[in-house]
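Q: Is it fine to ask for two folds in a single conversation?
A: Yes, each is treated on its own. Send the first.
Q: Here.
A: Result:
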Amino acid sequence: MSIILAIETSSELASCALIRDGAVAWRESNGVRTHSQAILPMVQELLAEAGLRLADCDAIAFGAGPGSFTGVRTACGVAQGLAYGAGLPVLALVTLTAMAQACHAASGATEILAVLDARMGEVYWAQYRLADGAWHSVCAPALCAPGAVAPLSAAGLVACGNGLTAYPEAFALQPFAAGALAHIMPHARELAQLARAALAGGAAVPAAEAQPLYLRNKIAYTSAERAVINAAKAAA
């Protein structure tokens, strides 16, 4: 079984996870301002607890977005830095798919609507269907106003994510809002679970080719983010 390290910092919750022999261990830290300081120590704790070196991993996965600019770039930069140093491939995974995975685990639903607060009066959303053990995109990840979220009709559709509570008036009359699991957020725990199939399916790329998923305009790395990337390379 593959050993994969996963990193997720696309929202207010930063997390990392290590999957080994099907078992997942993780760490998490709240507070978007502390992601760059928190993620590397958490990674080191996980590896030490498992008695592993970074080079013992088969790949590094990260939440590529959609999510906050700083968050997805932090995850990508740390994943790239660690992968460069250890000579590992990288898996760029969609944060909304990780939410669907968590929603399925919590509810048993196989038709999922993931809605993540994108700030500035908008949300990121996608609709997924679980079939034959894999997630299939019904509506691809998109950025829009809350009132424009339009999932395709599906029996048993369950919605999740903090976008639903961030704009309650916009979703008040939507049938999918009833019973929604608004507490579910992107987490490295689910990324690690998804990463095994992604690695087996040939989705890994060299560190230099890993890219965040932006649904808004790209902007350059800040000096602080570059410092995090350099720290990750040194740590590896």
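Q: Second one now.
A: Result:
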Amino acid sequence: MSKLHNKVKSIDDALSVVPKSGATIMMGGFVGAGEPTRCIDWLIDHSIRDITLITNEPGLSGFGRAMLYKNGLVKELIATHVGTTAESTDEYLKGNIKVEQFYPMGTWIEKVRAGAMGLGGALIPVGVGILDQPGLFAELKEAKRVIEVNGVPCFVEPPLRAPVGLVKAWRADEMGNLEYRYTSMNNNALVAMACDYTIAEVEEIVPVGTIPPERVGTPFAFVHSVVKGLSLAEHDEVYRKHWVKIGKLPAAQ
């Protein structure tokens, strides 16, 4: 494997592209599942401030992305709500996180898909007459644009992209082909395609050819750096301890 094709890097090298302040980062994950936890820890350890975070939902309270809000690192959130973590809710209610508007989950992922596929946007009928009510989103600079398509009024939703993307996969080969496992698939594959520079945190790094072609969830062309995260067993233990802590699993006897 030549250096030209080997995208495996140390976490410091991979995340050196992130500005110290004012970064716009798109991040995969769904309520704690499939989050790039080592990368999140790196952002916290390096005090990367004033982040504009593009993510489906804020995460799981007491874990992963929630620690970004707890440490006051997120300036703006582009998501579907703030309610799955106490940390994001507290920061939002204190006025510390800017939210220009919330999107229904289907709308959010369609905006990301539009960004991934190079589309000019998406036409969304959901929420017309509700989400465009005057004064609903005080930070919104201009009214949401509506056009009629076949007699149905639709929002014209522009695509979502970001300079930096952080995604989590099960395995990667040295070229950057990614394989996802179960719920970690969630929105990671589209996020990986919707960013100018995508960093994949994985549990295993394997030789090229190990991942069957039909199991490649994100092709190498969309991945710029691969970093080694926790192993599958280590991740399972982190999740188990957290779910025990919040009372969703019984403590081991």
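Q: Anything structural to flag on that second result?
A: Two points. The mean pLDDT is 95. The domain at 11-100+161-245 is CATH 3.40.1080.10 (Glutaconate Coenzyme A-transferase).
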